[in-house]
Structure formats: C-alpha cells, structure tokens
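Deliverable D5.2: sample structural annotation.
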Amino acid sequence: MAARQGGLVAPALLGTDSKSVDEIMASLTDLVKRTRAFSLRASELSQPTLTLTNLGDQGVEVVHGVIYPPQVALVGFGKPTRQAWVEGNTLRLIPVATATLAADHRVSDGHHGGLFLACLRDLLQAPEQL
C-alpha cells in the first residue's frame, strides 16, 4: 500500500486460505485502515507471504516486480488493454490484463510459479465461482 507520506508498506493479510471472499474483503478493509493509522501487528510485517501489486491505475501495462524478504513472491497486475483474441475461428477484441510473477526460487521453482499463474488466470476468468 502506498503510504500517504510516501513510500510503500506491504503488510500481510493472514489466514486467507480459510476465509470467504467477503471475509477477505472485510479483513483487507481493516488492514488498510490499520496500515494508515500505523497500528499493524508485528506478524503482519514479518510473516513470509505473497505480495500483490497493481500498477494498472497508473497506466502501467506490465509489472516487473522485486520481492523483499519476508515475501516469497510478488504477483503484479497491469492495466487491462484491448487485444485481439482468437476463439475457435473467430477473432475478437477483448480486455486483457497481464499478470507477472517474481518469486524466490529458494522457496519454489518456476514450474510451480507457472502452475500458480495458470490457476490464477482460470479463477479470474470465472469470478462468480470464487
């Protein structure tokens, strides 16, 4: 999260694997408020986790992320752009957002990273199933 005084803070949203999307959104809202109030827990700054960043709102199409310990990976989202897409024998213009992954290879390897991005793509293409 961008700090109002400048700089970035990357607190961890913990326990998301056991929460619904609504619970995650409520936890995120709380985390943002506490980040801005400088009242984060130590565990929210020290647990190894995956960082998400979105620079699309600033016009960036592709993010080349850098991870900082204790984070083990960073997924970067860029601005959606309209691109030509082939479905069957039909060519259409559709919105496409690029997601990139920077990962610590001491934690996982590129193959698992590719599987993760493929799974993320599939989930984002069917948000009603989340």
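Annotation notes: The chain has two domains: 1-47, 48-129. The mean pLDDT is 89.
The annotation will be released with the project's public dataset once the embargo ends.
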